[in-house]
Amino acid sequence: MKKTNLLISAVLGSALLLSCGTNTSKKTTMETYEKGTFGYDLDFLSTKDSLIILKGDNEDAQVIVSPKYQAKVFTSTAEGLSGKSMGFIGYKAFEFETPDKHMNGFGGENRFWLGPEGGQFSVYFEKGEEQVYDNWHTPKPIDTEAWDLVSASTRKVEMKKEMEVRNYLGIQFKLDVDRSIALLNSENIKSLLGINLNENIRSVAYSTKNTITNKGDFEWTKETGTICTWMLDMFVPAPNAVTIIPFNEGEEKELGKIVTSDYFGEIPANRLNTKGNTIYFKTDGKHRGKLGLNGQRTKGIAGNYDPDSKRLTITTFDIEKDATYLNGEWNPTKNPFIGDAMNAYNDGPLEDGSIMGPFLEIESSSPAAFIKPDESQIHTHNVFHFVGEPADLNNISEKLLGVSIEDITNSFK
Fold it and tell me: What's the pTM?
């Protein structure tokens, strides 16, 4: 990062922390806020980076953004410093003296990655290497390197990163990534989702705009291979939490299979079921499983509901039904041009009992970026958290997901 951008980051980050009234000592804050609250995570993360804090008018809605940690949205709250911290934070990863060679699991409820992860065009495996975990390495620009801060206010932050990645064919890609994160107020939420929030619902929401630009001297084609934007939301699981995914109904020969559910072995039936045009996926952080929907099946929306914390999360993202989506499976023999547009993940212990989280994820991918030098592709991904009583959240769930809160809570009974 350039010295000027480091200075901007420090000055703006400090100013925003002061404006939020959170520039307190670690000792005082840890005594005040319990682990799991936004205040606790704000204090912890503020010792690692000059954070950008986006906040609403009443300061109940707040979002933590980190330029140093790959432009992540680390976490957010709908109920101020004492409220629940929505994002998963990988506290242990910050303790490593040397970076992990595979991936540094800092967490973050919204992070920018590049796809595909596996296959002929993977940017996570060197040319010719077997696609297994020992050979899997996350590109440094999206794993350990800091991003440049372009501008910041209490409502919006813009960041930038110049990158070079090499794919499994051995072809080097040069690109610029521009990423903006904007806090959304109730009017923005109404405009984007078509819903009115009553006074009993607390909310925090933000929109991310992610632009990749080809800065090389050749066009990205099916022959060279290409990349895509890959957005991942990491949230804290709960014993009764469920991810809800509406899908487009239709014949498999026309739209493809409804869901791919065997990324890490087939997801058990007591953890995944389909009712009508809705997929329910248990996200308790106790069993590792991943699923995906293609561009024809996904409606560009997914949700997660936790009845214990009375939290309904909605994620929306850009979809182009007729576009090409890249296959990210760790198998270079598979067709690289038949892949998923959205994914969902539930973390769980590995065979040796170790676990990175636990956490749950909702993910979206852009279409394959077939772009010429200096051309760009934009992918928008939005996150909305609503906290309230089931009766108040029900209208949101029915309108956006097509199912009631009762349908969700009874989905595995």
Answer: 0.92
